[in-house]
């Protein structure tokens, strides 16, 4: 036996004395990022309206209760697409004690600007009577979604490199229908009656804090389509007013197609209404009166409108549509999860692992889907799932 053969025998003997190699496990290498399902946020309240950065590395969203004391109703944040520490966008802008509620962030096609909505007036949940009243009585009994809370908002367009105050940004004020005062009605000798109208978009916001009147950029980056909750509007950024889009009554969740030819939106359908009359009373009798009108929502129809001609195309059930970058697919909420539909409505399929999903947003490369998912306690977090 030569020296090389002897060395080989010794090596085999040493190897035989060691423990056997563990069998290969499929999770030894971890899950590749491209195939991962990632929960990005773990907030104490709600996270909503995910939107991708221009390069697809981060997801922007609006968080409720972000600070230590949980007092912020809506803060604009950024988180890496694979998970990590969330950070505030425009930190100085959101550093004050009294920061308005921020909703619906969306990055411009060029990636240099971001549009969002400041909710400048939002009624607190649960209407309370003003002093010296101490009792609110409603007949018939009032369901919780009968109280509209959205009153005023401001669509704002801000450059990512902006450092100055909001006064220097382009903006458009929006009034959300739902609250009014009728001085001609004087029951009980009062000066008038406060009117509340619980439109579908108000109910969606009240129950799930979902902001259906979101905004969306046109591909040319000069216009935004938005909703005041009752119809769609097109705003040439910088103009003093926005123009209504015909045929979009009760339209919400607008999303402009990548080629600019269509705007997808959700049309909420109603089936009648009920009225609730409420009075505030105190030690000196009745001090205020409110009349509330609650509409029943019977459906959410995914609809396409051609902004140049007003042509309409209905594609069945669908909320919060989002376009794929190539314009071939639409992602919507349907039946409590996310579905993918061909743009012409010819085919539809479920997106796996998106149960209880809402507010889909497709990454710039089309490879990932960000969405919000409702936990069992009703709280929403942001997730990302890989697409085929």
Short account of what is shown:
The longest helix is centred in the N-terminal third of the chain and has 15 residues. The strands form 6 sheets. Strands 8, 11, 12, 17, 18, 19 and 20 form a 7-stranded mixed beta sheet that branches. It contains 2 helices and 27 strands.
Count the E strands.
Answer: 27
State which percent range the strand residues make up: over 45%
Supply the number of helical segments: 2
Biggest sheet character: 7 strands, mixed
Measured between the Cα atoms of the first and last residue, the distance is 59 Å
**Rg, alpha carbons:** 26 Å
Ranges with pLDDT <50 over ≥5 residues?
A: 1-35
The level of helicity is under 10%
- Helical/strand content category: mainly beta
The rough form would be described as globular
Mean pLDDT: 86
- Spell out the helices and strands N to C: HEEEEEEEEEEEEHEEEEEEEEEEEEEEE
Assembly level: single chain
Describe this protein's structure.
6% of the residues lie in helices and 46% in strands. It has 388 residues and is mainly beta. The strands form 6 sheets. Strands 8, 11, 12, 17, 18, 19 and 20 form a 7-stranded mixed sheet that branches. A 4-stranded antiparallel sheet has the order 1-27-26-25, with no helix packed on it. Strands 2-3-4-5 form a 4-stranded antiparallel sheet, with no helix packed on it. A hairpin with a 6-residue loop joins β19 and β20 (312-317). The longest helix has 15 residues, at 3-17. The chain starts with a helix and ends with a strand. 40% of the residues are buried. Residues 1-35 have low confidence and may be disordered.
